[in-house]
């Protein structure tokens, strides 16, 4: 038996292809991102080592601060909208309303759409002349009109909302699964003690979901900081630079201007930013693990 | 939850809220399908919100025949199918070796691969583009298939690992007694057992590769190799005079994923929640 499950040749055959591919395509590039961020590099030649100059330049770039701010706005909107709405809907659906299966499927459908389709749809809906949203105001008899995407103040919010809308269903599904896994007797005990339903959820269910909330928050915030496709498709970073994010800055630097080293520095900064956020969330939420 | 409590607290207001959000969630998609069957005049002026008055299927004919939709569709199918096969084969074998076989570094190997779940595509885009160029994969199907497989390995290995751990060891023991080789045991005994997990991952990997946008944007520039998410990007400009056809193209692109999800909704959601539970 030992020999059977310890078959060296079989282990190699089973693990090597996956390990090799993963190492070359996923793991090695992340090291390269850090290494190349210390070079002035056009992506073709060897480049020259300039140590931290790319980072110094990054910190002096006004677009960097716009990008940083936008990433945080994006993350905050995703976290509030997705987790807020997701929580309310998950608790309600867990009650077992009539048609809860249809509800679940409806909430999740935007998740399976291509981001291009979703962005094109919302581009049409946001359009100032014939867009659906302004048409709704018109139909309601309100004379309010807004150029959602061409106004540099509203653009980033409008884009972030699209992403929040599309992936809310994902967070909802995670939260619903977690809510359903909370043992009933805890809530029953609270009920016997005379707690209202709302209070019981607040004091019992939500704390028990701490691990899930941690995961959802990390997902929303890193998703926001890394946002790229939405602005690429909807505004191209504009108007002006008002909808740049760090990933967009990286994309522009590397693939449009040919400054691969500078782009790598932006990417490396992003990795560090996401790491800090993840660690902070882990530290702040549920220091003591709740055991059943 | 407790039955009596449930009944008394079934708040009608909450019910309305649930259905209103369902409407917000689905209506944009319905609106797209509606306008794929309308002409410009109906979309903009006479009937922007509701059902089409008569169905203009010629929009679908236009989208399919005048633009590159069939080519994009074929590319998406090819890339997604190859990605699904590659990912499943590599991650089933890998996670089997890690979960069931006995070797010293198995835990290290498992964690090493799980880390990949935390690496966003965006931050390795630059080195990845260079790698694909250096391997002379640029502007071939492999430019997408290889990275898609590599990126899906982490998640699906983790899901398979969870399944493998729940199978009793006696299976291999008895196979070993009967004199079967490890390969034979794996193929004829283990694989059939984890079929449900494989079905789940097939759906999941298909959805993610069908819709992938960022890598496709960086790694594919040749028109004839573009996948649907990339091809659709340039429709806005091309179709300014024919919105109905654009809606039709977008509907065609969405149909496979929406169908797969509606048919297999439980498996899709299960796959994702397994991920979060293991991670937590």
Automatic annotation (TrEMBL), chain A:
InterPro entries: ABC_transporter_permease, MetI-like, MetI-like_sf. It is found in: Cell membrane. It holds the Pfam family BPD_transp_1. One of its GO terms (cellular component) is plasma membrane. SUPFAM superfamilies: MetI-like (SSF161098). PANTHER family: ABC TRANSPORTER PERMEASE PROTEIN, INNER MEMBRANE ABC TRANSPORTER PERMEASE PROTEIN YCJO. It comes from the Bacteria. GO terms for biological process: transmembrane transport. PROSITE patterns: ABC_TM1. This is Sugar ABC transporter permease.
Automatic annotation (TrEMBL), chain B:
GO terms for biological process: transmembrane transport. The chain crosses the membrane at residues 12-34, 77-99, 111-130, 142-164, 185-207, 243-264. Its main location: membrane. It is found in: Cell membrane. Residues 73-264 form the ABC transmembrane type-1 domain. SUPFAM superfamilies: MetI-like (SSF161098). InterPro entries: MetI-like, MetI-like_sf. It is a multi-pass membrane protein. GO terms for cellular component: plasma membrane. This is Carbohydrate ABC transporter permease. It comes from Paenibacillus roseopurpureus.
